[in-house]
Amino acid sequence: MPGLLDSPLSFSLLLLLAWLAIGLAGLVRPRSLEFAGRQLFIGGALVGLLLAITAVFSIAGPAESMVLPFGLPDLPMHVRRDALSSVFLFLLGSASVGISLFAAGYFRSGEGTLPGVLCLQYHLFLASMGFVLLADDAYAFMVAWETMALSSYFLVTTQHRIPEIRRAGFLYLLIAHVGALGILLAFGVLQGGSWQFTFDAMRAATLPPEWASAAFLLALFGFGAKAGLVPLHVWLPEAHPAAPSPVSALMSGVMLKTALYGVLRVTFDLIGEPVWWWGMVALGIGLFTAIYGVIFAAVQSDMKRLLAYSSIENIGIAFTGVGLSIVFFGVGMNALAALALVAVLYHALNHAFMKSLLFLGTGAVLHATGERNLGHLGGLIHRMPWVAWLTLVGVLAIAGLPPLNGFVSEWLLLQAFLYAHEVPKPFVNMLLPLGAALLVLAAALAGYVMVKFFGIIFLGQPREQALRDAHDAGWLERLGLLWLAGGCVALGLLPAQMVPMLAAVVDALGVNASGIRALRDSWWMLTSMPGRGVSYAPLAFLLAVAAAMLATVLIGRIFYRRRTRFADPWDCGYARTDARMQDTAEGFGQPIRHLFQPFFAMERELPTPFDAAPRYRVVVTDRLWRLLYLPIERIVQRIAAAVSGLQQGRIATYLLYSFVTLIVLLALVL
Amino acid sequence: MTALNWLGQFVEVLVALALAPLFLGWVNQCRAWLQNRSAPSLLQPYRGIHKLFHKDAVVASNASSLFRIAPYVVFGSMAAAAAMIPSLGTRLPFTSAADAIALVGLFAAARLFLSLAAMDVGTAFGTLGARREMMVGFLAEPALLMVIFVASLMTSTTALPLISERLMLQPLAIHASLLFTAVAFAMVMLAENARIPVDNPATHLELTMIHEAMLLEYSARHLALMEWAAALKLFNYACIGLALFVPWGLATGAEPLALGQAVIVLAIKLSVVGAGLALIETLSAKLRVFRAPEFLATAFLLAVLGQLTYLLQVAR
Predict the structure, then answer these.
(1) What is the reported pTM?
(2) What span, in angstroms and rounded, lies between the C-alpha atoms of A193 and B306?
(3) Which of B244, B233, B230 is nearest to B177 (CA)?
(4) Looking at chain B, which terminus has fewer C-beta neighbours within 10 angstroms, N or C?
(5) Which residue in the set B96, B105, B293 is minimally distant from A400, CB to CB?
(6) Candidates B114, B120, B134, partner chain A, best to mutate (most A CBs within 10 A)
(7) CB atoms B55 and A434 under 8 Å
């Protein structure tokens, strides 16, 4: 079918259908791990690869739309592919290649859901995320959005026999639906009295400013719930540890980005003319989320929970960029708005790769040791070199270190922040540069968190006997990790290739990025804005460090030629050291607990020197639970109790209710 | 001209590698004089490094290869940073490979590797040092970046060589904002280079050490590289400070004569900086570890103050 292949939109739809078909195929032999849990997942990875390739080649192409011949009567589904969809489809496709390959080697039999059902849920989840990105009317969007929420709910509760996991799943579902309500209301405002729910109608509608603001705030709330903006972040640290690792990777790496996509779509495309103070709102919430997330990540002792909080931090950074971009756009500084948006898109791509990589790394550790608690791990670099070294790539990337990818987006965002003092608003121009300082604080803390994460899991001495016979990941798992680590390196070393592509996306959103696209001096060097002479060349960076390393190695080999002996660790001469003398996860978090005390609700149990069986316990919890969620819960309970007064349990009462309702309605109509 | 440029670049790195231990020796000598002690020779750091290179390395049997790679990575990063900082000339090839933000990133990378290596053997001291080092690091980084921000506000660029060139062209005046940030920078420099009052390079007392605790398991050539890298780091920081606050005397080309002049100017400036460092270290006492955040928060606030001063000045 040449017509079908010519259009990237229909080909992408076909690929989403292929994912669905793969999912359904899992039901043919639902109990076969080899077929449903392995071969089909490899097929899914191939589809992801095709999707990523299609998306890359269609980014610069013109937007195209289509009306699908199904849906409700008189309400067909509209789909549209433009540059913004393409870049997120690329993210979905390319990250899913690595995750699906890893998943093909990951799932074991006898763990909760049947492999066939799991395969269906997994691929339905992938396809629905793809459809969210292609939907072009509110109806199709919400259907896809809800399918995404439900399929991921079932994936989170794969091991549904464990009560905590059921509870985590419920919390996730609850917040997902509170968020969905916000999105639905935002669409309701956006149609602007035309009662047309296609995105085209919304683009055409001109809203009065107060309604436009309402739509933006509703969308920020709705998508923020999915993305994990504070205070709607509470589901992340519960759901991610509960889900199987490939699912956590998908949710954190890809699903959170659909929320980012939604905010960008609504703000820059559907509303079209954002007001600058919306940006201040998004920026403030984003920065607070980033700091909050990273501080909590630093005190976690469950490795997947730590990564979940780190995802909250990264989403915060992305929303900071969105906010900055809106501020610039609102005051007419178009080129800078484009720079900030490019940074946001770059960060989204980066995070998809690095966070998936880290989650999959924890998955491999979890399978090898059965432990999620950092306090029982350690020294795994000897037993699991593949996982350890590939995870190290992700760790360095997410800590924002050059020459890997995490640094590139932070660099771009900081460059944009440098111009913030030129915003022609008093006070705002003084406040904004401080945002850069908070951003750097978050990034520097991320380094702390990652040293803790990697150092305690993979380095040091094993803290348990059982760790001594941990095994490395299988070849499919290694392949998946390798793909994602390769992505991190490539995105880090070749930013000059990526940035013009992302600039095209930003251009298509109506933010003029011609300034950035013209900046491509050479294929290996990234520059920020014209006239500043600022550049960053990761390849030269890497070469310089590598050359210096090589020179020192050679000098050592040629001139000195000394041997290496192995002996017991010295440790200042203390004779008896064991694994329990190393820092624990709690110990590593101690400076952060001390410095950022007001953020935490802490419960401590300190033993006295005379305890026969001393027990040290420290539990750090989120204050927001007590300050926000429990009061809401109490109010809901109270309302429910009041309403339950209506329930008499006698048939006569219910008949009376119906009768009264009837009378009231008649009175209204007549 | 390109060949000459590259030659100039090569010379710059060699000068940095050669001068760094000497600079450390100079600081130590000044400190000894100020404290009424007889000073070690100026060449003592070279002798130490040379001696260490001549020994067989002893590596803990449970160390992974990360432990053995780390010294090379840390040293390599510092050498690369020396190539990117305009210590002699502002137009050398590598100066465009990284701006000031990327330099901060490079220092962070070295710190991360050092901390990971310290955790690798799994001793109590190593992990303690790593934790403290990372704590100081995450507090110092924002302060350092704010310092750089002020300079880039004034010159509208984050590229260090351009900052220096543009500051050189400005009429000579005392900027209040630069004064604030210079103090902030000095504080960050002390903290990042494990000097008093945040850390003491001469101590091996477990309650106080940060940097030294991370190096305990290293010996021979690995230790030599680590110490050399530490000296280079101090040198690099000094050169960043000079490029930001007293850029006069840098070569704007790569002609041998100009570079030769720049070397002499650099030596003079560094001897002043070294004496200043020794004076600060003699006059202040070591802080408890948990006072270090307050110290760095002060640095951060000073940098912010510098920025606000500049913005108010522009707004007026």
Answers:
(1) 0.93
(2) 51
(3) B244
(4) C
(5) B105
(6) B134
(7) no
